[in-house]
Amino acid sequence: MKDKLKIGITCYPTLGGSGVVATELGKLLAEKGHEVHFITHSMPFRLGKFHKNIYYHEVEVSQYYVFRYPPYDLSLASKLAQVAKMEELDLLHVHYAIPHAVCALLAKQMVGSNLKVVTTLHGTDITVLGQDQSISDLIRYAINESDAVTAVSKDLIKETRELLAIDRDIDLTYNFVDKRVYYPRDISKLRGEFARPDEKILIHISNFRPVKRVQDVVDIFAKVSKEVPSRLLFVGEGPDLSKMISKVKELGLSDKVTFCGKQDDVAQVISLADVMLLPSEKESFGLVALEAMACGVPTIGSNAGGIPELITHGETGFLAEVGDTEQMASYAINLLKNQVMYEQMAQNCLNRARYTFCNDITTVQYEEIYYRVLGRE
Ligand code: GMT
């Protein structure tokens, strides 16, 4: 049996799929007996209750008056080095290249080369920031100097190579869901509060950033609701939320659309729905579509980024070109009107989530990467 490891994890703890994946991974590694140290500016929101083998170290930023911009990155690097030394960490696993990988590399220089750095790329760290000339050299440096680099889809690996001229090895580590949390929940009592028995429920969950094309969700729903009695649930909040509230009003759809805000029990909310809508402009993976898949809910979305690696068109959902709301609505209408097709697709979703994107597979994959960089294969 291999030694248990001491692992430091840094991520954006309060938002986004990257923080969710990092936190869930940490919890699973701790369950397997590894010692996991989260080193972040706030408690990761998915950490939940007290867990054995999990420790939390808060990064405090100096507010000294000469700093025009409080130097979070330096405080993080310093904390990473401090915790690595104090706890004798084997490695730092950082999620998101900027600034986390750079800070981890600085910490490694302070501690010594025995401390390994594993960097996981999640998407916008490459697809958005990688295009910014002012920072792209730094991202390239962080990727090239990490002891291992992983990315959450083949598409993201390709983008990383193309945008940043990277030719080093990058491991593919698809995102995952914990099958003990994401499964079709019993919503028989709750559903009646959102829809009549004859109505279908469509759902969209995101941070309402422009890249999510939330306006397309409203357009798709406007078309679907003309053909199928239905309701739309919006979960989450972000910059485009208020525009969407106005758009829903303008289209006279307010009585059919519920804005639920942020929700913690995502599996429960998703289980209420019949279809997930994800028409993003860009999506390195689309964790929310996987969460839906694991609850037996097919996704209708865009053929963008890593989404087609997750959603098999015609089997676990339907994909159309970005912005083609006509086609997406037509897929939704057909699916919602055809019970036999729907049940088959829901079953395909459960199988695919369970056998291809399940926590057991991914945790082992990451462990193998850790042992490899430590030379303990
Ligand atoms: O999608 C977001 O806005 C949040 C972002 C993040 O950094 O958390 O999500 C990215 O990472 C997720 C987890 O790996 C992926 O599921 C999302 O597809 C990816 N977002 C984009 O590529 C836009």
UniProtKB/TrEMBL annotation:
Residues 16-178 form the Glycosyltransferase subfamily 4-like N-terminal domain. The keyword Glycosyltransferase applies. Its EC number is 2.4.1.-. It is an enzyme of class 2 (transferase). GO terms for molecular function: glycosyltransferase activity. Keywords: Glycosyltransferase, Transferase. Pfam families: Glyco_transf_4, Glycos_transf_1. Residues 195-348 form the Glycosyl transferase family domain. InterPro entries: Glyco_trans_1, Glyco_trans_4-like_N, Glycosyltransferase_grp1, Thiol_BshA. NCBIfam families: thiol_BshA. This is N-acetyl-alpha-D-glucosaminyl L-malate synthase. The gene is bshA.
